[in-house]
């Protein structure tokens, strides 16, 4: 699940070419753009359309679940990435 199945491949998000293409089975690996300072070789997670996210840092034994809803009242009003990074950075500082 956490082995990089796309090692060496370019990122697939044309809007964010600096993002890594590192993906395991159903999760992304070591993605600072939403994992903040929790990102690292043993970190995996997932984001969803509405802005929710899951980050698991197996080295520190930390789990972060952020429940947001950027789709209400419409789909274009918010970028939830800064909130993800801020929450992850707070947890990384305490963990």
From TrEMBL:
Organism: Micromonospora coerulea
Domain Beta-lactamase-related intervals: 16-87
Chain segments carrying region Disordered: 1-21
This protein's name: Beta-lactamase-related domain-containing protein
Pfam families on file: Beta-lactamase (PF00144)
SUPFAM superfamilies the UniProt entry points to: beta-lactamase/transpeptidase-like
InterPro entries in alphabetical order: Beta-lactam-related, Beta-lactam/transpept-like
């Amino acid at each position: 699940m956490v082995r990089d199945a796309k090692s060496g491949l370019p990122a697939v998000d044309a809007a964010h070419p600096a993002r890594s293409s590192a993906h395991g089975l159903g999760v992304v690996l070591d993605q600072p753009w939403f994992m903040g300072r929790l990102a690292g070789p043993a970190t995996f997670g997932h984001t969803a359309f509405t802005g929710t996210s899951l980050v698991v840092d197996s080295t520190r034994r930390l789990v972060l679940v952020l429940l947001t809803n950027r789709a209400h009242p419409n789909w274009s009003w918010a970028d939830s990435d800064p909130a993800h990074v801020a929450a992850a950075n707070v947890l990384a500082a305490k963990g």
